[in-house]
Structures are given as structure tokens and as C-alpha cells.
Amino acid sequence: MTGSDDATPVGPAQNSSSSSGPRRERALEDSGILSDSAPPAIDVKSLSKRYGENEAVKGVSFKVARGEVFAFLGPNGAGKTTTIRMLCTLTRPTSGSATVDGFDVFRQPTAVRRRIGLVFQEPTLDQQLTAEENLQFHAVLYRVPRHQVEERIDRVLRLVDLGERRKDLVSTFSGGMARRLEIARGMLHTPAVLFLDEPTIGLDPQTRALMWEDVLRLRSEEGVTIFLTTHYMDEAEYADRIAIIDNGSIVALDSPDELKKMVGSDTVELSTADDKLAGSNLEQAGYKVSVGEQSVVAFVENGEEQVTAIISTAGVPIRSVKVHRPDLDDVFLHFTGREIREGHAERSFPMHFRSFRR
Amino acid sequence: MATANISVGATRLTDERNRLGYELRTIQMVWHREIIRFVRTRTRILSSFVQPILFLFVLGYGMTTLVGTTGGFDFKKFVFPGIVSMTVVTTAIFSAISIVWDREFGFLREMLVAPVSRSALVLGKALGGSTIATVQGTIMLVLAPLIGVHLTVLLVVEVILLEALMAFGLTTFGVFVASRIQKMEGFQVVMQLVLFPMIFLSGALFPLDGLPSWLAFITRINPLTYAVDPLRHVVFAVQNMPPAAAARFATGVTIFGYLLPLWGEILIVVAFALVFLALAIRGFGKPD
């Protein structure tokens, strides 16, 4: 619908998508998550939240398996933060139910809070304390047994590579270091689920990548389930599964690869000396193609592998080749009919210029 | 069956005992943080002395020339316990400010989302602020010899206890106020409208008898009055006061002509502290 005049060099591939509804549900069941015998890390049933007239979350349901990295992807105001707040017992749901690590967020909020780690959008460190002191404080609040405190502090600081800054005041930390310290702190009491609300907001790309390394290391070494929200498309690709949320409803839920498959095939876009000839050559060879004014586009399952074959099949001099695999931008556009980022201008902004919400 | 029941009961008992232990640990930790932060901000320590010392010398020397010396007991000595009180009160209130800072810098959230009781957080905060205020007030005692106020060991102990009570009352009051305030500016407004009038109308800086009745009334409903007077009372008790001076700078608060006993004043302060402790706990950490 809107946003088809995408500024990035994308072929006209994604409008050729097939019906995706049944496939989506089947993929969810096939993922094996629904049949797990132990209680899932997170189990949400028609959870909704209404603020007066405005229904911020409209009866969402999903399950998150233990050890999974699960991303909530959606634009600002889609209901991500409200959902995370309900799961963390900070906001009371209007209706529906949810359990975290088997405990009901409605009836057992304290039990839930002991089992979760929380990293908010806004920093919540004491700048006047050292990294170690912040962690010690947290250890007491979350009842880490006294004899384990030292060991845990060592470990979580090492996990986020801040071991050497242990005795430094947090006020001397960069934004990225502070965020990583917060993640370490969220892990200190060995939570079952770590909630990260827009964990990379305001960080530059290198720091974001570093933070993601930390998060994935936590998952592999501590076995923690990670639930995060983001409105950065590229970031959601780190997740095992992604729920795309828009206007308070989940519009799609699957692994990044599956989501991309639903959106459409890869495209190989050729700009040649004779596009018409190239197009007919490719068509005769059995490729699905579309000939445009400036280029010819072939739709294939695996663009990277097929690209040499396509070039030789085209049989004409080639000026340029573009291989495009649908990314999450395309996925979001596909499921919501909108681009996740409002307006193209913002796209060129460096990350740290993005304003904080609220 | 029976053994199972016993072990369940025992577990519950240890749980309960642990619960108390964890609450105490939380209180201790919040207290400890206040102390760390205080020790780390040296400017704050210094600045909290400047104002009372200024008052002591400006008011003390300035007023002494005006009021004159009554039987060798000058106004400086009169105002000294009041200045000590003032140090305690301002330090206590300003340590409660840190809640507003904690809110601005987000750390309040770290505390509020944790699975701990609000009582433990408020108690830790109040005890931390009280400790700092008591220490500050006690340090002021080094000025005593300079202006000719005699100190005894017992007096210092009495002063410390009274300071601690006063500090606790004022910190709980400060925590209550701060937990209702979202912005730093708001706290400053409240302090201008509440803290300074409270200090000025408490008898800290001038004798309370012989005031016009409307002013007398205000000083009598000011809880700080009942915290300052006992402090002055114990200090004066060990001074060598000529009868004329004792009459001029009488201690004790009269209500409807009835002289309130010392324990009555202390009881009022205790009640004040408990009421605001309860209110602070109730008001603390309402979801943002």
C-alpha cells in the first residue's frame, strides 16, 4: 500500500507474496514450543490493557520457550512497552492472563519479580556508586545469598566485559558501558527471564553490536530466556522468534527466516545491455522474471547461490547485479502495510540522535 | 504425613526468619548507600556547615550587641542549641531530597521494582538521613568551646540522642514530601515554604515567650518547637546560668499557661516521626 517507493535499492519482489496466514500458524506449532512439557518461560493468554478509551494491547497470546531469545518488534506506541510492563507486574492487565516462569503475574507478582531481570529504556543506575556497589545493592534487593554475591558479581561483570571497571564510579562510564552494566545487573540474581525494553536505544552501532554479543553470550552461558522489545529491524534478526506488534495486536510471529520467506523470495536484479533479451533468455530457462524499464528481475529461492547461473543464462553484457533478500523492513511493511520508521528522513539519522520516548 | 507437616512448618518458619533477615539486610543496604553517597560528596558536607555557622556568627554576634549580655550569658550561647538543631534539620531534609534525585536519575525505579517491601526502603532511607544529620549536628559541637558553652560527656550523649530523634522525625517528613514530588523544583518550593518557616518559628533562633499571641500559636503548632526545646534544655542544664539569664532565656514550652514536661515534648516528636514514617511508607513508590 503505502511506502512502496522504498528509498533503498530493493527490487519489486515483495509484492509477489503468497497467502501467509495458515503458514504462520503451522510454523508456530512446528517450532515445538507449544508441546514443551515444562512450563514455558512466558505464557500469555489474551492479555489486554485498556487506558480509558484507548486499548493499548488488544488480547495478545503467545508463548516463549525456555532459553529462547524472543523479540517484540513494532513502531512506537504499538503496545510493546505496555506488554513488557504487564509481564513484569509493573502494570495491571485489564484482562487475560500471563505467567512468567510458571508464576502468575496477577496473583504472584513478588515471585515473578524475583525471577526476572529488568533493563528499562531509561538508565536506572546510581551514578555516584561504583559498578560493584550498584551490583551489591542489587544483590541485596534480589536476595542473592551472601556467599554467592562475590562470585556472581565477578561472573556477570566478566560476561559484559566490565571486569576491569569494577571499582569505577558509574558516572565515568559511557552510555554503552552503563547499559551493559545494567544488563549485567539484570542477570545478577540468575533470573529465569531477562526483559530488555529497547535495550539499544540511544547507542551507536558498534556499541549495539557489542551489547548483542553480550546478550547472546548470556543466553548460551546462563541459559536465560530473553524477551526484548525493539523498533530496530536489523536488531530483531538476532532473535530466535519475532512477534510483530502493531496497534496492540500481534500481526505475525515466527523466526526471522520464516517471516522473510512469507514475505517473498529473493530477487536478483540485473541491469544489462539488453534487458528484454536477458528476460526472455531467463524465462526460457525456467526463471520467473519481470522486465522493467531499467532492469530485469529474477525471483529465486536462494539468490546468492543462483546469481552466477542467472548471469550466464541472461547471455548479455551485464552492467550491475543486485541480490536482495527480504529483510525485516520488508516483513514489517508486508504485515502492516507501513514502514516501521515513520518517514524516510529519519532513516539517515545516526542512532544516537533518535530521541528517547516519553 | 506428620513428618511432612512438620518439615513444611519448619520451612515456613525459616522462611519467615529469613524474610526478616532480608528486610534488615535491605534496610542496612539502603542506609549504607546513603552513607557512601554522603561521604563521597564532600561539597555537600562543607556546604551544610556554612549556613549554620553563618547564622551562628551573624545572629550570635549581631544580636548580642543588640540584646546585650544578661548576667554574663549572651545571645550566642542562647542561639547555639538552636543552630545545632538547624544543622540537623536542614541536613535531614536535604538528605530526603535525594529521593527526588533518585527519581530523576532512575535509581528509584531500580528500588521500586525490586521484590522488597517499601517499609524497608523507607526505613533505610530515613535511618541513613538521620545518621548523616546526627553526625553533622554533633560535629557542630566543636564550636561550643569557642563561644563558651560547656560540654560534658553526658551532655554530648544527650544531645546526640535528641539529635537522632529530631533527625529521624524530619527525615521521615522529608521522605514523605519528596515521594510526592516529581521534580527538583517542586522540592525547592516546598522547602522554601515549609523548611525555613519551620526553623524560624521553632524557637531555634529566638526565645518563645512574650511573643504576640498569633505568633505564639504558630510556634506551638510547629512540631519542630518540641524538638528544639529539649535540646536547649539539656544544654542549658549544665551551663552556669545566672538567675537573670535563666529567666531571660527560659526553656520549656507553655501551652495555655501549662508548662509541657520534657518527656511530653519528646513524645510529641516521637509521634510526629511515627506518623510521617507511616505516611512516607504509604506514599512511597506509588507506580510512576
Structural features, described:
The complex is a heterodimer of chains A (358) and B (288). Chain A has helices at residues 21-30, 80-87, 109-114, 131-141, 146-159, 175-187, 205-222, 233-236, 256-263, 275-284, 303-314, 328-336, and strands spanning 42-51, 54-64, 69-73, 95-100, 103-104, 116-119, 193-197, 225-230, 241-246, 249-254, 266-272, 288-291, 296-300, 318-324. With 358 residues, chain A is α/β, with parallel strands linked by helices. In chain A, strand 4 (95-100) and strand 5 (103-104) form a beta hairpin. Chain B is elongated and about 60 Å long. Chain B is built from 11 helices and 2 strands; from the N terminus they run ααααααααααββα. Chain B has helices at 2-40, 42-67, 75-104, 107-112, 118-139, 153-179, 184-200, 213-221, 225-237, 243-248, 262-283; strands at 254-255, 258-259. Helix content of chain B is 75%, strand content 1%. In chain B, helix 3 (75-104) runs antiparallel to helix 5 (118-139), helix 3 crosses helix 9 and helix 5 (118-139) packs across helix 6. A two-stranded antiparallel sheet of chain B has the order 1-2. In chain B, a hairpin with a 2-residue loop joins strand 1 (254-255) and strand 2 (258-259). Chain B is an all-alpha fold. Chain A binds chain B through residues 88, 90-91, 110, 113-114, 118, 120, 122-129, 133, 136-138, 140-143, and chain B through 22, 25-26, 28-29, 33, 36-37, 40-41, 102, 105-107, 109-111, 113-116, 287.
